[in-house]
Design brief:
By secondary structure, this protein is mostly helical. The protein has two domains: 66 residues, Arc Repressor Mutant, subunit A; 54 residues. A hairpin with a 3-residue loop joins strand 1 and strand 2. The longest helix is centred in the middle third of the chain and has 28 residues.
Length: 139
């Protein structure tokens, strides 16, 4: 797997974010073991200390726990905690900034609704064609 690291942020923080996204997306479930420090180090060609530093942040935030002799595991409730934090950040930081930009650009509510409808139609059109062709994933 090829990973491109961003030079503007420490790699251990980027790795932590990558693991958090895997938890949010369900790639690593609550109660499941995280990949070992050694495996991550080898896969991404990172110093094991960098990986350990990223994992320690997860432990510090009670999103992972160390089990002696077994490794690191995602804690129960980690996904809900992450979703709550993401929502909070969106509502307190990202949404106000987005609203400010919408106002600055003079975009009306009608413009936003029309854009959303257009995007929804673009998304649903391929699915509708798939359903009509009889090639559904159901069954």
């Amino acid at each position: 797997m090829q990973v491109h690291w961003d030079d503007t942020q420490p790699i251990y923080l980027q790795l932590k974010d990558k693991v958090l996204n895997m938890i949010l997306e369900g790639a690593i479930a609550e109660g499941e073991a995280l990949p070992s420090v050694r495996n991550i180090s080898a896969e991404y060609k990172l110093n094991p200390i960098t990986v350990s530093k990223a994992y320690q942040l997860l432990v510090d935030n009670e999103l992972a726990e160390k089990r002696r002799g077994l490794g690191m595991f995602v804690t129960e409730g980690a996904k809900a905690k992450l979703l709550a934090a993401e929502r909070e950040q969106f509502l307190t930081i990202e949404w106000p900034a987005l609203l400010e930009k919408i106002e600055r650009l003079g975009i009306s509510l009608e413009d936003l609704v029309q854009s959303a409808k257009t995007d929804e139609e673009k998304f649903q059109k391929p699915q509708k064609q798939l359903d009509e062709s009889g090639e559904s994933n159901n069954g």
